UniProtKB/TrEMBL annotation:
UniProt protein name: 2',5'-phosphodiesterase 12
Gene Ontology biological-process entries: antiviral innate immune response; cellular response to dsRNA; cellular response to interferon-alpha; cellular response to type II interferon; mitochondrial mRNA catabolic process; mRNA processing; nuclear-transcribed mRNA catabolic process, deadenylation-dependent decay; positive regulation of viral genome replication
GO molecular function: metal ion binding; poly(A)-specific ribonuclease activity
Residue segments, region Disordered: 94-118, 208-235
Signal sequence extent: none
Ranges where the 2',5'-phosphodiesterase 12-like N-terminal domain occurs: 166-276
PANTHER family on file: 2',5'-PHOSPHODIESTERASE 12, CARBON CATABOLITE REPRESSOR PROTEIN 4
InterPro entries listed in its UniProt record: CCR4/nocturin_mRNA_transcr (IPR050410), Endo/exonu/phosph_ase_sf (IPR036691), Endo/exonuclease/phosphatase (IPR005135), PDE12-like_N (IPR048821)
Biased composition, class Low complexity, residue ranges: 208-229
Limits of the Endonuclease/exonuclease/phosphatase domain: 304-604
Gene3D superfamilies for the chain: Endonuclease/exonuclease/phosphatase
Organism: Vulpes vulpes (Red fox)
């Protein structure tokens, strides 16, 4: 068996006692400890990192988190544990003595007995041992091999069951703004586990302003015995949708990570603010009546939506000029995220292509919400915001990604050599085109039910300026050439779904180019920004595309403009439209004058349709 090294007199008696124990007695002690209730010692040890971490609670109540080299002999780690235990004991004794000598209410000093007595003997470092399979682990065994799952750590009289790499939450967070009727989707990240195998239990305050648990921070709450100020909601799922009865109450989530075989240490967190009242009927509520269920495997429910990036919504120009009719609180991200999450999850989509997505909105809001409803996503940054594509994991797996930046591809990819040669003739136009930061997101998905079915999903947000028609034409030419390379050269014959905010109405050259397959060199859009930037050229592509949702009167409705700018273009050779989910009525859109509003989170309207394989 291992024992503490050194020759300090204070440890001699302990060593003598330890040496009297036989191997059988030690094994019996370990077995007895394993059979009974034991504390937990959590070890995290992964090959890619030089150190392992060890976490446990000492008898004095303090919690220890240690980092030790994986290649270090076990004896050194156990010696450090013994030192920490001794320090913890000393602190506890000092605190007890301080309480004992504290003046009492009558001005005297509190005493433990009738008179002075001998000072207690100085504490010795406790015996620290590690057992595995009822055998004491030798001190020269390296940490990486010594700390095995199921081992037993003994610190004095306390025994701990070692759990190596149990499921654990590395991140856990509730949204700051919570509204009645809107799903609350916690942001969480796990190591050695998965959300589907984890346990969740939701609580709400028994009454507004109830006292917080002592300590004010996360604590270990037993689901069977909640704190007196909290009551169970009866919801044991990852997502909780508060009701009107929850308004004014804070929420608490108790969650235990799992991986299908075992559970890890539980964690608990409380909402910062109480549940707020919702805005009433939203523009998308009626649309959700058409999308109550996920479609069967023959259909692909597709959504395209410009979310209105927070980086654009939260400016003085937006508040005073672009959207002066919108209540300021309805432009705040925390408020809008509730509406966006509810709208998107309510569509039960298989594919969702989003534009104007802030990076933090993708990671902190969209991923947690949509993952909880069975979707997985990828993100492509532009400058201040970017594109996101989500797909239903039960229907699709991601085979590959082929994202590009338009200006980089045009300059460096031989695929666009002919187009660049045409553009070079017009230096002013070329300079403007190459200054734009627009990107194209391309994802190749494969059906989980039929591996022969693959699809190329493209997503973009073209240049926005009203006079940038010729720039959008060239961006679209680059996009279609790249999509052809992916769908014909890399994955021959796979169909295409091309979603986005194209910033082009049906009367523009860009739309004409996409649906007709060509654009003549004398089209008026080649001079969209005046004669100085005119760049006449003819373009063509070989796809047979059409707008799945037709040509609505508008998909963007703000105070000074309304028009159709968003489309879901589909490959007519392989796909057909099963149904188009109706857009909100004009009355719904204009209830609060224009978009965005308290009942609609963006200045755009989502396009939603069910597509069918031919």
């Amino acid at each position: 068996m291992w024992r503490l090294p050194g020759s300090r007199a204070a440890l001699r008696g302990v060593r003598t006692a330890v040496e009297r124990h036989t191997r059988a007695e030690a094994a019996a002690a370990a077995t007895e400890a394993a059979a009974g209730a034991m504390e937990r010692a959590v070890v995290r040890c992964v090959p890619s990192e030089p150190k392992l971490s060890l976490s446990f609670a000492l008898a004095d109540g303090s919690h220890k988190n240690m980092q030790r080299d994986q290649s270090e002999p076990l004896g050194r780690a156990l010696s450090r544990i013994a030192t920490n235990a001794l320090k913890g004991h000393a602190k506890a004794a000092a605190a007890k003595k301080s309480r004992k000598n504290r003046p009492n209410a009558s001005g005297g000093v509190a005493c433990a007995g009738p008179g002075p007595g001998p000072e207690p003997a100085a504490a010795c470092e406790p015996v620290v041992k590690l057992y595995y399979r009822e055998e004491a682990v030798a001190e020269d065994v390296l940490n990486v091999d010594a700390w095995q799952d199921g081992a037993v750590l003994q610190i004095g009289d306390v025994k701990y069951k070692v759990e190596r790499n149990p499921p654990a939450f590395t991140e856990l967070q509730l949204p700051r703004y919570i509204m009645a009727g809107f799903p609350v989707c916690p942001k969480l990240s796990l190591e050695f586990g998965d959300p589907a195998s984890s346990l969740f239990r939701w609580y709400k305050e028994a009454k507004p302003g109830a006292a917080e648990p002592e300590g004010g921070g996360p604590s270990s709450l037993s689901p069977s015995s909640p704190s007196p100020s909290w009551t169970e909601t009866g919801v044991n799922e990852r997502v909780y949708t508060p009701s009107n009865a929850d308004i004014g109450l804070r929420l608490k989530l108790h969650c235990t990570p799992g991986n299908g075989q075992r559970l890890g240490p539980s964690r608990e967190l409380e909402s910062v603010c109480p549940v707020e009242a919702g805005p009433g009927t939203c523009t998308f509520d009626h649309r959700h009546l058409y999308t109550k269920k996920v479609t069967d495997n023959s259909l692909i429910r597709t959504v395209s939506y410009n979310l209105l990036a927070d980086t654009y919504a939260q400016t003085e120009f937006s508040r005073s000029v672009l959207y002066p009719y919108c209540a300021p609180y309805a432009l705040e991200l925390d408020y809008r995220q509730n509406l966006i999450q509810k709208e998107l999850t309510g569509y039960n989509a298989d594919l969702i292509c989003l534009q104007e997505v802030d990076r933090n909105v993708f990671t902190d809001s969209l991923v947690p919400a949509l993952e909880a409803f069975g979707l997985e996503g990828v993100f492509r940054i532009k400058q201040h915001e970017g594109l996101a594509t989500f797909y239903r994991k039960a229907k699709f797996t991601l085979l590959s990604q082929h994202d590009i930046s338009f200006h980089e591809a045009l300059e460096s990819d031989p695929l666009h050599k002919e187009l660049l040669e045409k553009l070079v003739v017009y230096p002013s136009a070329q300079e403007r085109v190459l200054q734009r930061s627009s990107v194209l997101q391309v994802s190749v998905l494969q059906s989980t039910k039929d591996s022969s079915k693959r699809i190329c999903v493209a997503n973009t947000h073209l240049y926005w300026h009203p006079k940038g028609g010729y720039i959008r034409l060239i961006q679209m030419a680059v996009a279609l050439a790249h999509i052809r390379h992916v769908s014909c050269d890399l994955y021959p014959g796979i169909p295409v779904i091309f979603c986005g905010d194209f910033n082009s109405t049906p009367s523009t050259g860009m739309y004409h180019f996409v649906v007709n397959g060509s654009i003549p060199e004398d089209h008026e859009d080649w001079a969209s920004n005046g004669e100085e930037e005119r760049c006449n050229m003819s373009l063509s592509h070989f796809f047979k595309l059409k707008s799945a949702c037709g040509e609505p009167a508008y998909t963007n409705y703000v105070g000074g403009f309304h028009g159709c700018l968003d489309y879901i273009f589909i490959d007519l050779n392989a796909l057909e439209v099963e149904q188009v989910i109706p857009l909100p009525s004009h009355e719904e859109v204009t209830t609060h004058q224009a978009l965005p509003s308290v009942s609609h989170p963006s200045d755009h309207i989502a396009l939603v349709c069910d597509l069918k394989w031919k």
